[in-house]
Structures are given as structure tokens and as C-alpha cells.
TrEMBL record:
Keywords, sorted A to Z: Coiled coil
PANTHER family, per the entry: FLAGELLAR ASSOCIATED PROTEIN, PIGMENTOSA GTPASE REGULATOR-LIKE PROTEIN, PUTATIVE-RELATED
High-level lineage: Eukaryota, Metamonada, Preaxostyla, Oxymonadida, Blattamonas
Superkingdom, natural source: Eukaryota
Protein name: Uncharacterized protein
Start-end of Low complexity biased regions: 260-272
Chain coiled-coil ranges: 153-187
Natural source organism: Blattamonas nauphoetae
Region of interest called Disordered, as start-end residue ranges on this chain: 1-23, 49-74, 104-128, 244-298
Length: 298
């Protein structure tokens, strides 16, 4: 960009110098040199406009590149920020899940151990067992020891059956409690996992919205810059078109002899024509530049 600016400055200086030379050539009546200078001015003007157009296009490309670099930088910062935020969330969520799992496991183990460590007390004797014990004592009091022994065996078996049934009932109740705690434990873990998933989805949705906003802002800036460039290029083309029209209609300034009388002007034209015919050089012997000028004049 700096070299292009220097080149434009050099062209401007050259054009200013040629403009001054053109005026001087016309003033001195050096019209062939003036025509040559005018053509040089046209060429330099084309070069200048071409350079300005290139500079305008290069500025557009540079602006687009700057917008892209700024967008990439913002996206890098955005990703770094969100990666850190998501890592922190996952770490905290994992710790919370592990804590819930440990609490649930400890509660379940405690429930299981309570059932295995405690021995059930004897249940309250049934009416049948009480009647058997009374008969046993009555027969023993009557010294009917055989009868008392027989009733005792029946009472002992009944007591054993009732104890086993009572123990089985306690075990069933304990297993039901264990299963209930297991369901509650599983639900707690599932709830914390579902809660974590919901928070994770919310975070990713927020991240997606933020990324979409950055992307939309970048696209808007690119469109604005492109529209500005197209307007500038359009104005440049209009100015170039007007400049081309002016160059096409440009004529050499009139010499001082235009203020002479008609007689003097006629005399001067005649002398000039005679002198030109006398000094005219065959086309094959003219320098290339004069050949070109003469062919264009014709």
C-alpha cells in the first residue's frame, strides 16, 4: 500500500510537470512538442487512474482481510472463553454426580447392613401357643409327665414355626425397604444426570446463539464494506468517464496570434503553410513519433 501511494505521488508530480511543460510549449508555439506532451499526459492519466483503481481494489481486499482477521480473533477468544466455561461446568457436574452417587450408595449399604446385623426378637406368642403352654404346665402339675412332654414338643414346634414365620416376615420387610431405597437411589442419580444434561444443553444453546451473533455481525460488516467499495468504485468510474470525455474534447490553447487582425492572421497562416511545405519531410524519413502524430492529424 505504501509503495502504491509513492507511485501515485510520482505520477502526480510527473503530470504536474507535463502540464506546466504543455502550457510552456503552447506559449512558445512548439505545437508538435505540445502534442507529444499532451499524449504523454493522456498516458500518465490512464496510468494514474489505473493505479488509483488498483489502490481502491487493494484497499477493499485489505479491509475484507482485516474484517476476517478481526472475526477470527473474536472467534478464537469466544471459543477459548466457552471451552473454559464448559470445562468448568463438566468438572463441577461430575463432582456433584459423584457426591450424589456416594450418598446414595452409603444410604443403601446402611439399609442393607441394618437388616443383616440385627437378630429379630421373639415374637409375641399366639393364642395357640399360649394354650399349649398352659396344657403343658397343667399336665406337669398333674404329674402326667408323658402327656406334658408330648404337649411340650407340640408347643416347641409351634413356637419355632411362629418364630421362623416372624423372621421371614421381617426379612421380607427388610428386602422391600432395600428395594425402595434402591429405587430412590436410582432416581436421585437419574435426576442429577437429567438436570446436568438440561444445563449442558442450555449452555450449548447459549453458546450457539452467541456464535451466531458474532457470525451475523461479521457478515453485516462484510456486506457494509462491500457496498461502500462498490459505491466508491461506481463514483470512480463516473469520474473516470467524465475525465475521458474531457480528454477527448481537449484542444490546445490558442496562441497569441489569435488576437491579430484578419489580414495579419491570413498572412501568418500563409507564411506558416509555405514554411511547413518547404520543410516537409517525406513520411518514410520521419521519426516514428512524428509519423504517428501526422497519421492521427490526418
Amino acid at each position: 500500500m505504501a509503495s502504491t501511494t509513492r507511485s501515485n505521488d510520482d505520477l502526480s508530480n510527473s503530470i504536474n510537470q507535463l502540464d506546466a511543460k504543455l502550457s510552456k510549449d503552447v506559449e512558445d508555439g512548439k505545437y508538435l512538442e505540445a502534442e507529444h506532451t499532451r499524449r504523454q499526459l493522456v498516458v500518465l492519466g490512464l496510468k494514474q487512474r489505473s493505479s488509483e483503481r488498483s489502490q481502491l481494489i487493494e484497499k477493499h481486499r485489505q479491509d475484507q482481510a482485516n474484517l476476517k482477521a478481526e472475526y477470527d480473533s473474536k472467534m478464537d477468544n469466544f471459543k477459548s472463553k466457552w471451552d473454559k466455561k464448559l470445562r468448568s461446568f463438566e468438572t463441577e457436574a461430575e463432582q456433584k454426580i459423584e457426591e450424589v452417587k456416594k450418598q446414595a450408595t452409603a444410604e443403601l449399604e446402611s439399609t442393607k447392613s441394618k437388616g443383616s446385623q440385627t437378630s429379630p426378637r421373639k415374637p409375641k406368642p399366639s393364642q395357640k401357643l399360649q394354650n399349649l403352654r398352659l396344657r403343658e404346665k397343667h399336665l406337669a402339675a398333674m404329674q402326667d409327665f408323658y402327656g406334658a412332654q408330648s404337649i411340650k414338643l407340640q408347643a416347641d414346634q409351634t413356637e419355632k414355626d411362629e418364630y421362623n414365620a416372624y423372621k421371614k416376615r421381617l426379612e421380607d420387610q427388610h428386602q422391600q425397604k432395600v428395594r425402595r431405597v434402591e429405587r430412590e437411589t436410582t432416581k436421585k442419580i437419574q435426576d442429577i444426570l437429567a438436570e446436568t444434561d438440561a444445563k449442558r444443553q442450555a449452555l450449548y444453546s447459549e453458546r450457539g446463539l452467541d456464535a451466531a451473533l458474532i457470525e451475523q455481525r461479521y457478515q453485516d460488516l462484510v456486506s457494509e464494506e462491500k457496498a461502500s467499495f462498490e459505491r466508491a468504485l461506481h463514483l470512480f468510474d463516473l469520474a473516470e468517464h467524465r475525465s475521458g470525455d474531457m480528454n477527448a474534447s481537449r484542444t490546445l490553447p490558442q496562441s497569441k496570434t489569435s488576437n491579430t487582425s484578419p489580414k495579419q492572421s491570413t498572412s501568418y497562416t500563409s507564411k506558416t503553410q509555405t514554411k511547413h511545405e518547404t520543410n516537409q519531410t517525406p513520411a518514410s524519413h520521419r521519426p516514428p513519433l512524428l509519423q504517428s502524430i501526422a497519421s492521427e492529424s490526418m
